[in-house]
Amino acid sequence: xxxxxxxxxxxxxxxxxxxxxxxxxxxxxxxxxxxxxxxxxxxxxxxxxxxxxxxxxxxxxxxxxxxxxxxxxxxxxxxxxxxxxxxxxxxxxxxxxxxxxxxxxxxxxxxxxxxxxxxxxxxxxxxxxxxxxxxxxxxxxxxxxxxxxxxxxxxxxxxxxxxxxxxxxxxxxxxxxxxxxxxxxxxxxxxxxxxxxxxxxxxxxxxxxxxxxxxxxxxxxxxxxxxxxxxxxxxxxxxxxxxxxxxxxxxx
Amino acid sequence: xxxxxxxxxxxxxxxxxxxxxxxxxxxxxxxxxxxxxxxxxxxxxxxxxxxxxxxxxxxxxxxxxxxxxxxxxxxxxxxxxxxxxxxxxxxxxxxxxxxxxxxxxxxxxxxxxxxxxxxxxxxxxxxxxxxxxxxxxxxxxxxxxxxxxxxxxxxxxxxxxxxxxxxxxxxxxxxxxxxxxxxxxxxxxxxxxxxxxxxxxxxxxxxxxxxxxxxxxxxxxxxxxxxxxxxxxxxxxxxxxxxxxxxxxxxxxx
Lengths: 252, 254
Hints:
The complex is a heterodimer of chains A (252) and B (254). In chain A, 18% of the residues lie in helices and 21% in strands. Chain A has 252 residues and is α+β, with helices and mostly antiparallel strands. Chain A has a four-stranded antiparallel beta sheet with strand order 3-6-8-9, with no helix packed on it. Chain A has a three-stranded antiparallel beta sheet with strand order 5-4-7, with no helix packed on it. The termini of chain A are far apart. Chain B is built from 14 helices and two strands. Chain B has helices at 2-11, 18-25, 33-37, 50-58, 71-82, 90-98, 105-113, 136-139, 154-164, 169-181, 191-197, 217-220, 224-233, 235-240; strands spanning 63-68, 145-148. A two-stranded parallel sheet of chain B has the order 1-2. Chain B is globular, with a radius of gyration of 19 Å. In chain B, 39% of the residues are buried. At the A-B interface, strand 10, strand 11, helix 4, strand 13 and helix 5 of A face helix 1, helix 4, strand 1, helix 5 and helix 8 of B. Strand 11 (208-211) of chain A pairs parallel with strand 1 (63-68) of chain B, so a sheet runs across the interface.
């Protein structure tokens, strides 16, 4: 867990860092960003792209600056999964940009004096959160290293962060960071059409929402398809190709 | 199956009220089958608006679940049920879907090859999965459990779902036993429910809508061309589930 209490030092750090790329991925942050990444994942990243000279040059510089400027920096637990950054609003709006380097930045409203809860997903290496409406309101830069584990259940790996948006002036206590204990409570709200809404089965006692579709019950052939290669299901009948699965059926 | 399953799940919950139990049990007697059996737990019944449904979908404290069946298998089941008069109400559904309550299977397939056909989507038995529940094609990522149903795994799937929402083990065991033992045709005779509420469930006939279509699957899908037509018609569903299309080499068992 990292708490940044010195905004000036943070800005100094921000300005010291150039941007580097590995392949198409930014590995370090832009000048207005702050990097925290696990040493191991960074090392893995570097080793997997050893030919990238720029990164190799950047690595010692980045680590040195991190150690010098922030003796108390901490290693953030990587987050990962496949969806774009999620932002949940604690209060009503002004504007804050949650930016990913590759996709276009997306603006999310955050109120002054409130906080921004978010998690970072997807194939990213670093992100920034900056105020875009009032530059004088110093807002926290964020970073976390994303180690992507494709195909894993994303809920178990999301880490939610809270960025208080507290000050109106530079130097205010605007840089603080808290890892929330239970992960995000919500995702961006989807838009439903009016079609077949009555096919939702609501079980409020268990907070269960089930989508029921006609003609779906405990009969499916999917599972049996897995063993199709071990049995002969095809035969011909009256010059037509048909499927005869009685052998197949009894053989399971 | 799910309609009854979730009714029983609620009926066995300790906080269930008598009034709600009577609603779920289909009393007073004498109601039509439709009134007794269907739409007992809709958002409307619970006074849940579309906006709140949207928030529930986004709320990670709720569990959202959805099970599906191979689109071809589902289509055959629907056609047998509604257009081959397996069910009493079949004619009306068939007419809504194909504009002809007495349509034959080949003619129905022919309709499905015509460009711009959209009346099938008006009927829930033939509509694509993506149109259900406010647009599964846009909301499937919000679901916590999305699984194909299978007779062999239905028990474990249900247990996974019930464990996730913290249904007690005794209730889970009873319900799964009912589902598995009845091969998806829940009986209306769960002793715990009768004993607790002192009411006889009056669900009417509950097994009519099971068509056993698997037994006659090959009679309908007797040619690769038939398969291809249905696959193409429901291509969006295959894409939605990232599921490979069934082919003549890997049909459902008869």
